[in-house]
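User: I'm new to structure prediction. If I give you an amino acid sequence, what do you actually give back? Let's try with this one:
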Amino acid sequence: MRIFDTLAGASQFAWVLWHSALSARREAESELWRYLREIIDFIHQLGQAYRFEDYLREVPLTTPPYLSTALDSREEACLRRAMALALKALEETSDPQQARHALVFINLLNFLAETGQLADFEDFFTHRLDYAPLAIASFATREEAEAWLKEVAEPPSPARVLIGDEYYLAWYSREDGSRDVTRDFTIEPYIEEFTARGVPPNAPSFKSREEAEAWLATHPASPFAFLSIDGERYFAVHHKRLKRHTLHPVARSLGEWEEEKKAAERRTPLPPG
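Assistant: Good question. You get back a string of structure tokens that encode the predicted 3D arrangement of the chain. For your 273 residues, that looks like this:
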């Protein structure tokens, strides 16, 4: 089974149990299933599906299941409760498929611990709404991004990167070896939504991009902010992991987004008549 199918199946398994716990008003349990599902999204956002697939090949097959010693030193109560819930789900099910899904979550927690990513995930889970859409790397040009994708030891599968001020999707297929960098309209829906709410009348104004970037260095957007540069409105986005801002001209971004939506409609096949 492809790793993406494995992760999708585990995510659906957790969704069903999250919904069941929520319907029964078991709020603490439903929050833990959400926590476990968010790990899968974290893996996808960082383009680590193939890395996790390789990890699974090395996991010792034991009964009870292998638990990483790297988890012993962790104090996060939510993490301990999530592991206990996944172990309980494994113990209580007699269905082999459900057991495999529960094992995926146990090993996701092991994987995060052994790759030193538990703190990063906790930050992702706790502050996700405070951050801009995640990009894992930043490049000045597309040529730089393509060269990086060609040489990187663990190509993303896939993940977003920044090229200049724009989001792109860097992707690699282990199945056929193909890889590419393509434009990804990630931030444009945010610009559309925030513009529809209304641009603050007191948005800061600057004569040049250099002035704007100097101001943003000490007044980081949280994670978004409107500003003007030489009379043109921009949408500033703070990328905390990359320690930089991108600046998106509002009028041009909205125009490109409208064209992309129209193109998507043309690519969508019509239902049978």
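You can read the tokens as a compact description of the fold. Here is one thing that stands out. The chain has a mean pLDDT of 94.
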